[in-house]
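Morning - pyridoxal-5'-phosphate inputs below, output right after.
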Amino acid sequence: MNEKLPFVTAAKAEEIASRYPTPFHLYNETGIRKTARELNAAFSWNPGYREFFAVKATPNPYLLKILKEEGCGVDCSSETELMLSEACGFQGHEIMFSSNETQESEFARANSLGGIINLDDISLIETLENAVGIPETVCCRYNPGGEFLLHNTIMDHPKDAKYGMTRAQLTEAFRILKQKGVKHFGIHAFLVSNALTDDYYPELARILFETAVELHRDTGAEIAFVNLSGGIGIPYRPEEKPCNIRMIGENVRKAYEAVLIPAGLTNVSIFTELGRYMMGPNGALITRAIHEKNTYKHYIGVDACACNLMRPAMYGAYHHITVLGKENEPANQMVDVVGSLCENNDKFAIDRMLPQIDRGDLLFIHDTGAHGHSMGYNYNGKLRSAEILLKEDGSYQMIRRAETPEDYFATLDFANLSYTT
Ligand SMILES: *Cc1c(COP(=O)(O)O)cnc(C)c1O
């Protein structure tokens, strides 16, 4: 059983909230650095190893800077993410550009930064060539189709995923790219999201290593790296077990030694593009209970809503909730914890057993550090919250201010409105 303890005390959260009103996302610098160091240690057997943090998960310059200090690069999928990464000082092969339905302008931006381009489709060779020509290093995204099985259990259905090239297209793409002058090749695949088993990466690695050996044999391409992409999961639920990253790294090494080394591919770098694993548990949404309602159910209304954390509304995702200061009180009340959107899916928890919640209590909604604030939106005229960094020395800093009504109106043009009466 995973205890799911908050990384902040009630007193500290109140201190922060007295300066920056709730709701806000709070990030834990200590946890971010620890996660990055454990990951880097797990893959330290591979001299070229690099984690390219998936920027979409938590696109905040202060957090990207922490990861940069820990040796990570960035994985971008849009021009704006590339611009953000550039502003944070990432350059050259510290940048992976794993996009899809890509436009020429996006390839041009990625190429101008010297980033590694990861092609989602064989047709994008032409788009890339028209945009900037063909770089010396190119990665191709593979989709093996069918079902992805681990121990005879279906983990996901790659055949239904829009990403990546078929096996035949992959060989064809390598041939074309090689003929157009590519010297260093990579292959990439993302087959399961939020995988909570230690076997996902090693199995994916084995598939990609075998594919790399075939591609090298059939096209003569020099395989410079294998990109295992994202997908390592986190225990959102208390009964779930965290992944053992050391074991994962060790078993990827075993696959490397079993498949790549005997084939003479001894200098292949391992890349990862983790988002959720890096940041998820190192962020929380702090929100205050503002209302209690008793009708056919018992509701606790809070000052955050799905615009601050979309995952429960969108995927029915579970996020654990701790009532700060009541960590040791019995969870003997069944409640729905709800936001104020005019949408009945705006519920952070449904039929959840929690301690007695009083108006003014602070709730710590766990595991919002990835795909949390970044999935925010403005429905119902709701404004996105601030982001606060809790630093290693216990001090805290606002790293993104909350939106104001001026932000909401900034894209509207009232000047050319003519009113008719
Ligand atoms: C979303 C994404 C990631 C990160 O996924 P996580 O589940 O957060 O690890 C990595 N690579 C690509 C291409 C992605 O689209």
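Note: The chain has two domains: 28-280, 282-405.

O.
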